[in-house]
Amino acid sequence: MTSVTVLGSTGSIGTNTLDVIRQNSRRFRVFALAAGRNTELLARQIIEFRPSVAVVSAPELLPILAETLASLQLPSPEWPELRAGPRGLVEISTAPESDVVVSAIVGVGGLEATYEAARAGKKIGLANKESLVSAGRLVMDAVRAHSAELLPIDSEHNGAHQCFRAGARAEVTKLVLTASGGPFRNTPRSAFSEITPAQALQHPTWKMGNRITIDSATLMNKSLEIIEARWLFGIEPERIRVLIHPQSVVHSMVSFRDGSVLAQLGRPDMRVPIQYALTWPEHVPGPVKAPDFAQLAALTFETPDSERFPSLRMAYAAARMGGVAPTVMNAANEMAVAAFLAGRSTFLDIFRTVEHALSQVVAGGQTTLGDIIAADADIRARLAR
To answer: Of all residues in the chain, what percent are helix, strand and coil, respectively (each to 5)?
Structure first.
């Protein structure tokens, strides 16, 4: 049995990961679950999957979780060990009992645990893109130095990982990441100032958490994925291209120097890349069927409008700047999205906030994990005022 730790078990990726484990119960068992504040769902997951350890985001949530477990009539001798906070995340991510760590915590809060899992030589299923956006060089250096394995769970990077297996990295000329375009791909920029959170949360293809859904609407998710792919695949940002593909069937394409192009296709269901990350290098039977090409409508592609969606050019700028620029871009975006969802700012303010934050960054410089965490905290504090 392969023992799995799930960081962010109550989120969209976490619940889909547990469904994959549920479908493959003879192959996987859960060693540890970590959640934020959703103690009700975490308690139900504990009852079903019986982890050895469960972690919540803050100590004050521990008695609430204990009370919930008691109310669900799980005898206390059958409870997992209960821990809290960032230290708890690192402990379960580096524990000898854990074979695979699925890093699905949204935001920079998952960075330290992911980095330490790499240093512990773990197999990591990475859905926390901020780990590579903010600390790509550090994380990938740790992966190589400690013989860890890093398998992307983002559908686009997961598709690219499969395509890259067909040839040597030196033979690759271009990587194409596809984007659905979100709900506003045909909306005039003149109407962006009137967009409401409710409208922005209506994604046409994927069912995801609020933050990533807004990032899809601004194309910021694809912008962050450019930086993530740069480190994950060791490819220069200038050779990474984004195409709008509303059908969300083709997830990635890789061009080789002989003129051939390989594409990875699949239904828009996150269980496919999650299962690939858990079972790599095998492809095993899963709960999602392959697309029926006879039933598919036309597959279309178009170049994104960088004037309407300036987040893409910000990503290339942040990648060129290096240092803490990608960290600042990510943190400013998180704060701007939170303000938009809370009704304190407009949809256009998301772009303005990120661009202004990047304009204050000094390019270059070597960064440590401490530098990255400090830069992240600094921009959040300034934007919270």
So the answer is: 50, 15, 35
Q: What DSSP state is assigned to residue 233?
A: H
C-alpha distances in angstroms, 292 versus 160, 173, 288, 295?
21, 30, 12, 5
**How many helices (DSSP H) and strands (DSSP E) are in the chain?**
15, 11
Interval 64-77 mean pLDDT: 96
Which residue is it, tokens 């890259």?
164
Q: What is the length of the chain?
A: 385
Return d(Cα 216, Cα 239) in angstroms, integer.
Answer: 22
Q: What DSSP state is assigned to residue 302? A: B
pLDDT of residue 295: 86
Alpha carbon distance 125, 113 (integer Å) = 12
- Would you say 108 and 10 are in contact if contact means Cβ atoms under 8 Å apart? no
110/275 Cα distance (integer angstroms): 21
For residue 251, with 0-12 CB atoms within 10 Å meaning exposed, 13-18 middle and 19 or more buried, which class applies? buried
* pLDDT value at residue 316: 95
Give the other-Cβ count within 10 Å of 298's Cβ: 5
Least confident span in 52-61, 133-142, 170-179, 369-378: 369-378
CA angle, 318 as apex, 164 and 341 as ends, to 5°? Answer: 95
**Residue-level pLDDT at 56:** 98
Name the residue with tokens 């992911």. Answer: 114
Section 232-236 average pLDDT: 94
Name every residue whose Cβ is closer than 8 Å to that of residue 234 and which is 6 or more positions away in sequence: 140, 169
pLDDT above 70 covers a percentage of the chain that reads 99
Output the CA–CA distances (angstroms, integers) from residue 360 to 160, 321, 325, in the order listed. Answer: 33, 12, 9
pTM of the entire predicted model: 0.91
Report the C-alpha gap between 321 and 331 in whole angstroms: 16
